[in-house]
Amino acid sequence: MSAPIRLGTRRSELALTQSGHVADAITAASGRPVELVHITTAGDRSAAAISQLGGTGVFVSALRDALHAGTVDVAVHSYKDLPTAEDPGLVIAAIPPRQDPRDALVARDGLTLGELPAGATVGTGAPRRVAQLRALGLGLEVVPIRGNVDTRMGKVTSGELDAVVLARAGLARLGRLDAVTEVLDPLQVLPAPAQGALAVECRSDDEVTRALLAGLDDLGTRACVVAERSVLATLEAGCSAPVAAHAEIGEAEDGGDEIYLRASVTAIDGSDAVRGSTSGPATDAARLGRELAAELLDRGAAALVAASR
Ligand SMILES: NCc1[nH]cc(CCC(=O)O)c1CC(=O)O
Questions:
Q1: CATH topology of domain 5-96+197-217
Q2: Which residue in 100, 128, 173, 247 has its CB near the most CB atoms, within 10 A?
């Protein structure tokens, strides 16, 4: 029997579920046992708003430290939580097929966004959701919240809030899709870059683990994630900026894979937004993202990103 692969994971129910799925996939593909190693991150320890904790990466650095130190061999991240800068010495060796990346509304009495009365309270912590919800012009009162998925949904059950907005993918992984009252149309609320995707990371020089993880990689998901994240990187924005990007993959007329990419930057108060879209071969995913971001910058996105800092 070979030595177990050590997989570092956060302790939240969502992280443990995601890590468990990846661990099972590794064992199924390789026959190697996987041991889950629990790691506490700064984002888990603090109740402060993410933006106060230094924004991007608060959930990530402890896992990466453990990879660098060699105390774990693999780390699983929610891709949208990763900073756009690469970490030298580490590689995203696999991006498994992603879940439906859209946002979901969990509202009292089965209500949809359009059915919530003006003045209804909607909880979310993400500036991207805050901005887009305000831009809908429905008169909703957006309330900043934090905490794990159960804590957030509990605010609706208890009557403290009329609704919360969460990533559908997280609810799917936790088996809580029954609570969703509306899956939000990306035309109204466009998802975060890489939402719903996982990043499975290891050390770049660990050839054995890299080869093993390559079997979990999904090329279509990778192309979508590359396109979406290249929008974010070109805008020089992080996960705390009101930036959204969503790519879909389909077949082009020549039989190759084509990407259809949409992106937006929204003023935090909802008073302004710059939106755009593009399409092209999946092999050009990074370029498509860069060009779309450059177009948004030309049309005034820089001021909106700067204002959110
Ligand atoms: N911001 C926190 C976060 N990071 C990843 C997910 C789960 C969904 C995903 O994998 O994108 C969530 C929760 C949420 O946004 O509701």
A1: D-Maltodextrin-Binding Protein; domain 2 (3.40.190)
A2: 247
Nearest atom in ligand 1 to 165's CA: 16
Q: CA of 187: how far to CAs of 40, 42, 247, in Å?
A: 36, 34, 13
Q: Which H or E element spans position 68?
A: helix 61-69
Q: Are 202 and 193 in contact (CB under 8 A)?
A: no
CA of 48 to the centre of ligand 1 (A): 17
Q: Among all residues, which ones are annotated catalytic?
A: 81
pLDDT by 10s per residue, the chain, length 309: 578 999 999 988 999 999 999 999 999 988 999 999 999 866 666 555 544 544 446 679 999 999 999 999 999 999 999 999 999 999 999 999 998 999 999 999 999 999 999 999 999 989 999 999 999 999 999 999 988 899 999 999 999 999 999 999 999 999 999 999 999 999 999 999 999 999 999 999 999 999 999 999 999 999 999 999 999 999 988 767 899 999 999 988 888 999 999 999 999 999 999 999 999 999 999 999 999 999 999 999 999 988 887
User: Which residues does ligand 1 sit against, CB inside 6 Å?
Assistant: 78, 80-81, 166-167, 169-170, 195-196
- Entry pTM: 0.93
Classify domain 223-307 by CATH number. Answer: 3.30.160.40
Q: Contact 224/249 with Cβ under 8 angstroms? A: yes
Model-level ipTM above the cut of 0.90: yes
Nearest-atom number in ligand 1 for the CA of 192 is: 11
Cα of 76 vs centre of ligand 1, distance in Å, is: 13
